[in-house]
Design brief:
Length: about 350
């Protein structure tokens, strides 16, 4: 590693998929693990808070920016090794997530194919236990290599200790200062895709479930919902789903269903039983049935034309206006159904 290159006042907006937000007071790009450690040591000496940046696809940065050091993880490297019936694939945190998925699909390694088309880096995927179309990274994750800025040690954490849940892990709570350096997945060579999502099953329409076909089907579904980042898409400035699907008790789910019926909504409330007995509701359904329409705009920000859960930035907007729109949606859904939606992306700055 050469001398630590710290830059001042680096704009963060262009480093997020929303394209919003002010600058970082200090900024380091870490192309190797030693730079990650050196950056934390530098910030500690300066008394600065540190935030770790991947692809910026699940991030909202305040208009005032972030008053600390941003460490952008740009480490690379993927290696594969046989492990019994499986192949263990270890990828550095800075690798593109979808690049890794495409590579494993090409290699005939099953386990990540339904997570095709999700933007961002490998290192961020354990943080919110990234998931889509019936798969979550925790299904195949074996271990996570982390840097602990407090002890300044590098450790290997077994996936079983990461407290994975729906869009959640220990990295969001008590482990939130741990930096993910690499993630190792156990994949099945020659394995067929396991389809656990009705919409994907319908899209495959009985066709053989080879990994490449499943990847194509997932990408097509995502494109239709505006959940694929494409340079020529006028709604490309987004953080994907802006709200998580609420998970509520059985009685609360029934109360929401009754409320919907009493409001004259004939469509049945979508709900999925969770392994812990609670019920997952569809945030997008609640938003639309509250009267928030797809394509609705508030100046330079709005709701995607293809998915009520995705907020989009049309250009020239502010984070304040995006958060005001999000608050408006939360209040509207709460007033209609009594359910409080939670924001999915992480917010940096005031
Ligand atoms: C169009 C679109 C579709 C999406 N679809 C999905 C989906 O289907 N399912 C889903 O789960 N998500 C989805 N997302 C959200 C997002 O892509 C994922 O959460 C992704 O994993 C974020 O990766 P990132 O590298 O961009 O993280 P960033 O946005 O850079 O960071 C997000 C959080 O993770 C932390 N972080 C990042 N890297 C590290 C690291 N190495 N160590 C520790 N902490 C780290 C950051 O500090 C921050 O708190 C979507 C987003 C978009 C824009």
């Amino acid at each position: 590693m050469s001398a630590l290159a710290v830059r001042a006042g680096v704009p963060l907006g262009p480093r997020t998929t929303l394209g919003l937000g002010g600058p970082a007071r200090a900024f380091v790009e870490a192309r190797d693990e030693a730079t990650v450690a050196a950056a934390f040591a530098w910030a500690s000496a300066q008394g600065l808070e540190v935030a770790v940046l991947g692809g910026g696809s699940n991030l909202v940065v305040a208009d005032a920016g972030f008053d600390g050091l941003v460490v952008a993880i740009a480490t690379t490297g993927i290696n594969e090794r046989p492990a019994g019936d499986a192949v263990h694939v270890e990828a550095a945190a800075g690798e593109s997530w979808d690049g890794l998925v495409a590579r494993t699909v090409d290699a005939g390694l099953a386990g990540l194919e339904c997570l095709s088309g999700i933007p961002g880096s490998v290192g961020a995927t354990p943080v919110q236990n990234v998931g889509a179309y019936g798969q979550e990274v925790s299904d195949t994750l074996v271990s996570v290599r982390v840097f602990d800025p407090v002890s300044r040690e590098i450790r290997q954490l077994a996936a079983t200790t990461c407290e994975f849940a729906y869009r959640d892990s220990m990295f969001k709570h008590h482990g939130r200062h741990l930096v993910v350096l690499a993630a190792t997945f156990a994949l099945r060579p020659g394995g067929e895709a396991q389809i656990r999502y009705a919409e994907l099953e319908r899209a495959l329409d009985g066709a053989p479930r080879d990994l490449a076909r499943v990847r194509r089907a997932v990408l097509a579904l995502r494109r239709n919902k505006g959940m694929l980042l494409e340079a020529d898409d006028p709604e490309r400035r987004t953080a994907g789903s802006f709200f998580t699907n609420p998970i509520v008790g059985v009685a609360e789910a029934e109360a929401v269903a009754q409320r919907a019926r009493s409001l004259g909504i004939t469509a049945e409330l979508p709900r999925w039983a969770q392994t812990d007995g609670r019920i997952k509701l569809a945030a997008g359904w609640l938003i639309e049935k509250s009267g928030v329409t797809r394509g609705m705009s508030r100046g330079a920000v709005g709701v995607s034309r293809r998915h009520a859960l995705a907020l989009v930035h049309h250009g020239g907007g502010t984070t304040a206006s995006l958060l005001a729109l999000a608050d408006e949606i939360v209040e509207t859904v709460h007033a209609r159904f009594g359910v409080t939606l939670r924001r999915e992306p992480v917010l940096w700055g005031a």
